[in-house]
Amino acid sequence: MMEYESLIALGVFAVICLTAASTGAKYGPDEWYRSIDKPWWIPPNWAFAPAWMLFYTLLAVAGWVAWREGGGSAANPLPAALFVPLALYVLHVITNAVWSPLFFGMHRIDYALIDSAAMWLTLVATIFAFAEVSTLATWLLVIYLGWVTFAFLLNLSVLRLNRDRLPETAPTRH
Asked: Which chain regions cross the lipid bilayer (predicted)?
């Protein structure tokens, strides 16, 4: 049976990931999104919510497993061996949370692509850091990396199809 402190830690990881997911709930497909060009291979809109729910769950469980297997406890919530892995993890979650406001909120497909690249890089760094702590947590993130890679390629394709629709960043002078 799981200890009480471990359940609390799992709850903390779930709240961290749900907080990141909340930006996707606030900023979602709108009229602008429906009007832009998308690649033929994009999944239907209804598929994104369950996919992200699955991947946020994997992300939360991976963080929790790494915390447990890395020696995290109520007495020592952040052992030295976990500082870098969990800092990278939090950085990844932040880059994940920023994507929806950039893409759907600001309609900046280009900025969202930069963020998507940062999301991919921070996830790869987290995977390598977690590999020193937990095999299970590492593999959970590797599964999630497949989705993040797909999302990056999708963002890149949408950018290529809509370069002419990007808002201007600064007024042009003639």
From this structure: 6-25, 46-67, 79-99, 111-130, 136-156
Q: Is 157 part of a structural domain of the chain?
A: yes
Q: Are 96 and 145 in contact (CB under 8 A)?
A: no
Quote the DSSP letter at residue 1: -
Could you tell me if residue 70 is inside a domain?
yes
Residue 170 lies in a domain: no
Range of the domain at 90: 1-36+47-162
- CA–CA dist 18, 57 (Å, integer): 9
The first and second tokens of residue 50, run together, are 């369950």
- The tokens describing 61, both together, are 């469980």
Kindly state the DSSP code that residue 37 receives in the 8-state scheme.
-
Q: Does residue 17 contact residue 58 with C-beta atoms inside 8 Å?
A: no
Do 106 and 86 touch, CB atoms closer than 8 A? no
Task: Tell me the pLDDT tens digit for each residue of 109-156.
Answer: 999 999 999 999 999 999 999 999 999 999 999 999 999 999 999 999
**How far is the C-alpha of 32 from the C-alpha of 84, rounded, in Å?**
39
